[in-house]
Amino acid sequence: MLYISFMELLPNALEAMGRIWGLAAFFIGIAFIGAIDMLIPEAENPHDYKGLDDTTAARRNGPLMRTGLMTALAIAVHNFPEGLATLGITLVDVKLGVFIAIAIAIHNIPEGISVSVIILYATGDKNKAFIYSFLSGLAEPVGAVIGFLILLPFLSQYVLASLLAFIAGIMVYISVDELLPMAHRYGHGHTVIAGIVSGMFVMAVSLLML
Prior knowledge:
Shape: globular
Number of domains: 1
Number of strands: 0
Radius of gyration: 18 Å
Strand content: under 5%
Helix content: over 70%
Distance between the termini: 17 Å
Number of helices: 8
Oligomer: single chain
């Protein structure tokens, strides 16, 4: 996501609309996703999984269920702009959109787990755990559909360039604020760097083959 943002999306946007407006759209994207992230309470932040190991004793507990619902809501709000981002990239390049969809799908797996585990421990009901995590994930296609219905009638080269820069800002924020810290939490520093470089290499080769 970092490689695509800095090597594909942002350069194309700057070329189409100029440095000033392109960079403005880029930082507006960062501010937008950052504001969403800051408005979510710290305890229910989608990329904060502290305390999940201690929930067994609190099974069927009301406060735990509330935490699960808040987590599902937080992830739904968090996923909405990701759907918009996937839509915007796909409008420019379908193959590139597929790569982004796969990357975001992988990134969404631990988010779905964070919802389902809490709901499962709170209720003991696997079906409820699945339903709530599934509903939180639906925010992503909803974001894409709403973006399609609103943006498509007004789509122009300038609007598309602005959207690319805006999306680049969102993706950079998600990568730096969420994915990299999570990777460092569960892995060693050199392993994380190897993963970053490998991911960038794969994306570079894939883009050369487009």
